[in-house]
Design a protein that fits this description.
Blueprint lengths: L4 E2 L1 H16 L15 H18 L3 E8 L2 E12 L4 E2 L6 E2 L4 H14 L28 H5 L22 H6 L18 H15 L3 H10 L13 H4 L6 E3 L5 E3 L8 H4 L2 E2 L1 H12 L3 E2 L2 E2 L3 H7 L12 E2 L4 E5 L2 E10 L2 E8 L4 E7 L5 H19 L15 H7 L1 E5 L2 E8 L2 E6 L6 E6 L2 E5 L4 E8 L2 E4 L2 E4 L11 H4 L3 E5 L2 E8 L2 E6 L3 E4 L1 E4 L2 E3 L10 E6 L5 E6 L2 E4 L15
Helix pairs in contact: 1-2, 2-12, 3-6, 3-7
Length: 577
């Protein structure tokens, strides 16, 4: 059982604390009162955020709104430390996960401006000993790494997301040597944390200075981000919010605090007010409070789609995720790291932005929903229009939960509605997240910590989803589990992040990083493969068995997960800090 596991009564106490703190708006030091014209926006968002925190059981949340060069409102909700009743404020320090990548990439662009780095030169020009197994002929470049088109694995064998040993950046990056690429460079978006760690190691090598110290001087300093760093500085750790992990079965526990080996990709600490200075610098064509950070033409290139013909679920510039919100150009990034969830969303043509962070693991859908609504309110205000109402969902009545539970559709094109703990969850049988459903008018909508927006219309004998009808399926018997799979099923990895191998819907399935279910394609007796989507897009799982046929470990890409409770794992699996 993970260290710090909350009981159900403890969870109830935590929820009460959240509600009391959210509804008692004291002007805490560090908060910024709304600018006069933004008072109605702040009022609408306060009500919405309080509802979201109560519904999603978020211990704390901080948010800031930026209008060009000014923070027009910033506030904390809930408790940065629920045990000590320390309120969250706009000055609370959080880990911001993959939002870190934007600052690492800016550091590279500075070097490009000085003529010291070429984005399109082989990365081996700067790290000659970096030698992953590239059988495709086209060399890996910094441009590919910064836009997730290198074809590298998501995680490295050393210093990966699960690794609590805090190795050096050099050891993390060079542990990729000899590991094959998943895709040919430039052909497909494949998100890679070790890819951006490699970008950071280039900065470390080229400047002869540890990455955290160099980034603080070269990027964070000119931005005047004084409450930000890529390492746990004592003054920041004093104000670091306490964060929590959770699982589908209702458990909640305190998140670990170890430093990631892939630090340039996800190890930054910051506040929403510091991140607001970064947003303002983007509106000022790359100029921060303490000087020019990058040139306007460099910023323009970062916000331009890279390799736009490459396949994949997202469109990247250099670091930035590129999207649209109601027809407006939207740029930014999300971050999720052990207990924290961050969203920074910017409308560069409108010169407005929003950033929010919470302390409940991977609650990015909830945080993104909040920042999206904030931007819509800000757009209406600037256009002189009435503020749009924010639709709030409601619980599904218990009798409707019972009547809707079941399978709809057939084969891989089917969806299960699952009743559990008084809620209804949707799960596509071909994999993904379990999405909690709520009522929105006569429809159901995915509205939880990790998913928002899927609309389902119940009908007689079925459902309509995205305009397509799904007929209720008759009860079917799942196929028997093959004997060869029985030795593979079980738990692997660390207390702070367990990999589950199970059978679901007649397929051997992985539940990885607590929330993502993916059915596996069998390649051989002991080799399986993830589908071409998700966190571990097309990566292989290779099981190693003992003489009895029971797996003792599984290697996902380059990461070895040892079976939990097996003697060989005892020396390697560390408990939660």
């Amino acid at each position: 059982m993970p260290h710090g596991l909350l009981t159900r009564s403890g969870i109830r106490v935590l929820i009460v604390a959240i509600v009391l703190s959210a509804t008692a708006y004291a002007r805490n030091p560090g908060d910024i009162a709304p600018r006069k014209d933004y008072a109605r926006v702040a009022e609408a968002l306060e009500t919405f955020i309080e509802h979201q925190m109560k519904d999603k059981q978020l211990p704390s949340l901080s948010i800031a709104l930026v209008d060009d060069q000014q923070i027009v409102w910033a506030r904390g909700f809930g408790y940065a430390d629920p045990d000590k009743k320390i309120p969250a404020t706009a000055a609370t320090v959080y880990r911001i996960g993959s939002v870190s990548k934007l600052f690492t990439d800016i550091g590279i662009m500075q070097m490009v401006e000085k003529g010291k780095i070429d984005l399109d030169a082989p990365v081996s020009t700067y790290i000659p000993e970096f030698k992953p197994d590239n059988q495709f002929g086209k060399p890996i470049t910094l441009r590919q790494l910064m836009s997730h088109r290198s074809g590298l694995l998501r995680e490295s064998p050393v210093g990966h997301y699960f690794d609590p040993t805090e190795p050096t950046l050099k050891d993390t990056v060079l542990s990729m040597n000899g590991l094959p690429l998943v895709y040919p460079p430039e052909t497909r978006v494949k998100y890679s944390n070790v890819g951006v760690a490699t970008v950071g190691y280039v900065l470390e090598r080229m400047n002869g200075e540890r990455f955290p110290a160099y980034l603080k001087k070269a990027v964070l300093g000119p931005l005047a981000m004084e409450s930000s760093a890529f390492e746990p500085e004592p003054k920041l750790m004093q104000n670091l919010a306490k964060a929590y992990e959770w699982s589908y079965d209702g458990r909640v526990w305190e998140a670990p605090k170890f430093q990631l080996g892939t630090a340039p990709a996800g190890n930054m600490y910051s506040t929403v007010t510091d991140l607001s200075l970064f947003i303002s610098a983007l509106f000022a064509q790359g100029r921060g409070r303490n000087g020019q950070v990058i040139k306007p033409e460099s910023l323009k290139e970062m916000l331009t789609p890279q390799f736009p013909s490459a396949g994949g679920p997202r469109n990247f510039g250099l670091g930035f995720v590129l999207n649209q919100l109601d027809g407006h150009r939207l740029v930014g990034h999300g971050g999720a790291v052990y207990g924290f969830a961050t969203e920074i969303q910017i409308l560069p043509d409108d010169k407005i932005g929003a950033v929010a962070v919470t302390t409940m693991d991977s609650s990015n859908a909830a945080v993104s929903h909040i920042t999206n609504q904030a931007l819509r309110l800000m757009l209406a205000l600037k256009a002189g229009k009435d503020l749009p109402p924010i639709a709030e969902t409601e619980p599904i009545p218990p009798e409707q939960i019972g009547s809707l539970a079941g399978r709809y559709g057939e084969g891989d094109k089917a969806i299960d509605l699952i009743a559990r703990d008084g809620n209804l969850f949707a799960y596509w049988v071909n994999g993904g997240y379990e999405m909690r459903l709520r009522k929105l008018g006569s429809d159901l909508i995915a509205d939880g910590r990790i998913a928002y927006g899927l609309r389902i219309t119940p009908e007689t004998g079925g459902l309509t989803i995205n305009g397509e009808h799904y007929q209720r399926a008759e009860s079917t018997k799942e196929p028997a589990v093959p004997d060869d799979w029985k030795g593979l099923i079980g738990e692997y990895g660390w207390d702070h992040d367990v990999l589950y191998i199970l059978e679901r819907n007649g397929k051997l399935t992985s539940l990885i990083e607590w929330y993502e279910y993916e059915p596996l394609e069998q390649i051989s007796r002991d080799m399986f493969r993830y589908p071409t989507r998700g966190l571990y897009d097309k990566e292989d799982l290779i099981f190693r068995r003992d003489a009895s046929g029971r797996a003792t470990e599984v290697k996902v890409g380059g990461v070895v997960f040892r079976r939990r409770g097996h003697p060989s794992a005892a020396a390697d699996l560390r408990r939660n800090p």
